[in-house]
User: Which sequence fits this backbone?
């Protein structure tokens, strides 16, 4: 049975939130994000002495009356950002635990909603193999978003996903104009690192969301187990492994997982990217209100 | 160290099977995971752990291997051979039967004639000379009596022969049975050690079975026969003793000719009932034996049961020979000489019954005690004379000369003034408070129960044996407020209503209730209580007076010490130690083994009931089976020459093997469990 988190209640609870993106991003005209540059809004920002070439219509004549100098009145600027959401659509996200994929889709949808809610542009990039497919196109406005959500639920998760290849070859990744989110389990030691480096190079704000199923976070099975990798081709695939899982083995697994997550955090911190790790049994609202607020993505 | 069953090491194959089970790991549960990436990482973490963890993982396997190894060793039966055990080459294992029939000699022979046992010894020496001195072989000798044992093991050479000669020279035949099965087991053990050994059995009994063992039958069909007195049972019929005597003649066809013999019966110490004791004239009973082939085996026999009365004029008796009791009756064939004279005579004891004197004093006579003791008088008439005296006049009460003193409802003045009688058991029934001054007990007022109350058990005691207290009850009793050193045997409503004290010099029973206020007297339990009292305080020393050699007898004693002497006036063998004891016994009941033919004497020392030490005798005869000197037997232990394989069916090996297989099966099952 297909699992879905996407419904009206889910989105209504997100109405009060907004994405908090870095102010040094450039973006496009027409958005709601305050940026460092001055613009044409009605909100006063500062004064600046008149310089040759400035539009004389913007001179503050009242100030000239008092000071007999020419000053321009400056106003804040608001920009529209581009939010890219890269969703790992490999079999590892769904085959072992369908709720994990549903959770990833819901998380992507939540971020997308927050973006369109702030009049940003959203693109959902589905990473399948070496490519980042974008069947929904760029989404602006809630009406378009909600039409796209229905299609989001029909995403299939199969085969493998090479995050770095897919992200670096993505054609519409602009520079310095928004947020890129990669949602995956990151169960690959190096494939995703190039992607992060690439996005940082493009001066984008980067967020990595690691989604784990409860069984991955704390394996409850034990004994002699033939572990079948969800992305394996057959039983003889090298990715599979036979293991006698004992309590000590489970303990070793916990150590390995904690160290791996730690290395993810460390790498992201070194690149100025944000990183959160969540389990699919944790309510999405809680993750958004707690962990995204904590890393500063949400306001 | 050697192994008796080296094939037992096949059990070690179990280890291979076990390891195979572990290697095959037949069922892995399949689990689809998102990625094995973290599991592969965790292997590196696992490897970092200290080696002890690896050991812990295979601890179960190590334990199982150890168990299988232990089982295999048990199957292989390791033993550490002594230097004597390591024997090869020619060896004769000689088993010499030492049962009673081996004492048989040729009939009509002179005193220097040799017995079967002598011939066995002589033949053994002949064989030993041949084997030890001529063929450089070894000889092992097993004496087969009631507890067969190895006399010599694998002796060889001149020195060994000298030792053998000395050992056999000191041997004596017994008058008991022989355990040939155990002797053959010993012999087979020797064959296991030296597969070339041959077993030679010297016996007067014809044995069937035994495998390759050679049985040398020492009986001589042409020259041996035996006349025996098998038993004598005296019964009292119409005030006259009748002796049913079983006699027999055994022989072979050659020795089975008609024989006429005279049986002599002599009554010693006959009491005519008036205190006149004398020895009766000897009776002579002519017995004609006409042996016929037995249906039970290959021998001839004639077994007759004779009925002898002392008043029978035909055998020399007369009407004046009536007697009420006797001290001893001798039954014997004296006019002949047969192959086995030890069973030609038999003595009968038990003709004097114990006299139990009971004085019953009551202030309000009832028939319960009177009837009770008179019933017991009839029940116990074969072993005891119960003399019952009822006294209602307080001045006539005696405080000595009785075995039991029963005081009902009141305590006579003579007892109050002189204390309890010292020479018997005192029974107080419904006593008054004056008992408080006589015994270590304190009674109070009478308790009238609102409704009839059934009794409950107290301390276990021989007095209450077979009594069911919930079958009878009381409506009134006297409350005992202090029981002192008395043992409470029965309770009514929480108060003791039957108490006893049994010390060396004080034997008192207190029943603080009126028998008329109890339903006890109309139940069997009242009779059982009286019966128990007599049996407990006046036990019979022995319950039978005729035994066979090898029997175990249970002894009781009404005094503190019982002295036992056998026919040689020696203390008997202690069954616990197998050695002669002191002959004095202080804890009863006790058991002794009767090993000597003849009269055993039991003397009760220091009894409070009799000034003189009481003496009882029993006769120990040759067993009836051994009197038949041609009897046959069967042995199930098979001797197999030329092999040292043991028969695995006669011990627990098969169970160990089964346990081994079960262990492997359990392991396989555990391994195949899905969630193991």
Assistant:
């Amino acid at each position: 049975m297909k699992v879905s988190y996407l419904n009206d209640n889910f989105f209504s609870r997100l109405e009060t939130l907004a994405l908090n993106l870095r102010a040094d991003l450039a973006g496009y005209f027409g958005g709601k994000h305050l940026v460092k540059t001055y613009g044409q809004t009605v909100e006063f920002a500062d004064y600046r002495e008149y310089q040759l070439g400035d539009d004389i219509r913007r001179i503050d004549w009242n100030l000239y009356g008092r000071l007999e100098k020419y000053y321009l009145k400056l106003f804040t600027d608001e920009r529209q950002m581009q939010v890219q959401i890269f969703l790992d659509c490999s079999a590892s996200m769904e085959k072992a635990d369908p709720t994990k994929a549903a959770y990833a889709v819901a998380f992507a949808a939540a971020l997308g909603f927050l973006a369109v809610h702030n009049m940003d542009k959203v693109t959902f990039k589905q990473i399948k193999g070496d490519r980042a497919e974008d069947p929904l196109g760029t989404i602006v406005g809630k009406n378009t978003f909600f039409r796209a959500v229905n299609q989001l639920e029909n995403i299939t998760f199969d085969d493998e996903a090479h995050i770095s290849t897919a992200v670096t070859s993505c054609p519409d990744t602009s520079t310095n104009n928004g947020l890129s989110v990669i949602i995956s389990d990151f169960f690959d030691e190096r494939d995703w690192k190039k992607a992060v480096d690439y996005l940082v190079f493009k001066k984008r704000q980067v967020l990595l969301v690691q989604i784990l199923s409860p069984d991955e976070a704390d394996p409850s099975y034990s004994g002699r187990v033939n572990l079948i990798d969800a992305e394996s081709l057959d039983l003889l695939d090298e990715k599979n492994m036979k293991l006698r899982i004992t309590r000590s083995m489970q303990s070793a697994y916990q150590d390995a997982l904690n160290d791996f997550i730690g290395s993810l955090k460390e790498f992201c911190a070194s690149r100025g990217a944000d990183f959160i790790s969540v389990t699919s049994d944790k309510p999405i609202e809680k993750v958004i209100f707690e962990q995204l607020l904590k890393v500063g993505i949400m306001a | 160290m050697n192994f008796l069953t080296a094939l037992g090491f096949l059990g070690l194959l179990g280890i291979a099977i076990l390891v195979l089970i572990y290697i095959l790991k037949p069922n892995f549960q399949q689990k689809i995971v998102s990625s094995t990436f973290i599991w592969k990482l965790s292997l590196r973490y696992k490897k970092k752990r200290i080696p002890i963890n690896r050991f812990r993982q295979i601890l179960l396997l190590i334990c199982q291997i150890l168990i299988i190894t232990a089982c295999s060793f048990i199957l292989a039966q390791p033993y550490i051979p002594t230097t004597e055990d390591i024997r090869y080459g020619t060896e004769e294992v000689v088993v010499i039967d030492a049962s009673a029939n081996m004492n048989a000699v040729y009939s009509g022979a002179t005193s220097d004639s040799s017995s079967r046992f002598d011939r066995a010894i002589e033949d053994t020496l002949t064989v030993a000379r041949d084997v030890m001195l001529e063929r450089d072989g070894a000889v092992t000798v097993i004496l087969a009596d009631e507890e067969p044992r190895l006399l010599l093991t694998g002796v060889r050479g001149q020195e060994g022969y000298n030792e053998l000669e000395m050992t056999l020279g000191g041997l004596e035949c017994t008058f008991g049975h022989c355990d040939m099965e155990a002797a053959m087991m010993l012999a087979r053990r020797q064959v296991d050690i030296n597969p070339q050994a041959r077993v030679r059995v010297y016996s007067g009994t014809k044995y069937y079975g035994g495998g390759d063992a050679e049985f040398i039958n020492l009986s001589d069909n042409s020259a041996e026969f035996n006349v025996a007195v098998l038993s004598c049972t005296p019964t009292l019929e119409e005030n006259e003793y009748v002796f049913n005597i079983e006699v027999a003649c055994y022989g072979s066809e050659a020795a089975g000719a008609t024989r006429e013999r005279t049986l002599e019966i002599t009554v010693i110490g006959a009491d005519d009932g008036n205190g006149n004791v004398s020895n009766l004239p000897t009776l002579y009973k002519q017995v004609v034996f006409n042996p016929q082939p037995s249906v039970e085996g290959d021998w001839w026999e004639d077994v007759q049961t004779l009925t002898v009365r002392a008043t029978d004029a035909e055998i020399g008796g007369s009407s004046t020979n009536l007697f009420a009791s006797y001290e001893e009756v001798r039954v014997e064939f004296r006019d002949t000489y047969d192959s086995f004279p030890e069973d030609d005579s038999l003595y009968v004891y038990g003709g004097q019954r114990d006299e139990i004197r009971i004085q019953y004093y009551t202030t309000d006579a009832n028939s319960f005690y009177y009837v009770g003791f008179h019933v017991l008088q009839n029940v116990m008439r074969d072993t005891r004379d119960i003399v019952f005296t009822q006294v209602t006049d307080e001045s006539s009460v005696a405080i000595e000369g009785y075995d039991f003193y029963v005081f009902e409802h009141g305590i006579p003045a003579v007892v109050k003034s002189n204390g309890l009688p010292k020479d018997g058991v005192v029974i107080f029934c419904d006593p008054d408070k004056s008992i408080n001054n006589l015994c270590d007990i304190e009674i109070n007022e009478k308790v009238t129960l609102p409704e009839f109350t059934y009794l409950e058990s107290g301390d276990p005691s021989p007095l209450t044996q077979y009594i069911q207290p919930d079958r009878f009850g009381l409506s009134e009793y006297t409350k005992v407020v202090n029981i002192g050193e008395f043992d409470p045997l029965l309770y009514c409503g929480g108060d003791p209503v039957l108490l006893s004290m049994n010390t060396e010099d004080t034997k008192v029973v207190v029943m603080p209730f009126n028998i008329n206020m109890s339903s006890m007297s109309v139940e069997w339990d009242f009779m059982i209580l009286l019966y128990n009292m007599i049996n407990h305080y006046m036990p019979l020393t022995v319950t039978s007076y005729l035994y066979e050699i090898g029997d175990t007898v249970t002894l009781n004693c009404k005094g503190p010490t019982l002295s036992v002497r056998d026919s040689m006036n020696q203390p008997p063998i202690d069954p616990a130690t197998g050695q002669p004891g002191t002959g004095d016994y202080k804890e009863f009941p006790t058991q002794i083994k009767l090993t000597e033919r003849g009269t055993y004497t039991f003397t009760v020392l220091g009894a409070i009931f009799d000034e003189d030490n009481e003496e009882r005798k029993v006769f120990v005869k040759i067993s009836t089976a051994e009197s038949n000197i041609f009897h046959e037997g069967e042995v199930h232990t098979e001797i197999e020459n030329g092999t040292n394989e043991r028969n695995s069916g006669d011990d627990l090996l098969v169970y160990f093997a089964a346990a081994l297989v079960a262990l492997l099966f359990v392991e396989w099952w555990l391994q195949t469990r899905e969630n193991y």
Observations:
- Residues 91-219+630-645 of chain B form a domain with the Rossmann fold fold (CATH 3.40.50.410).
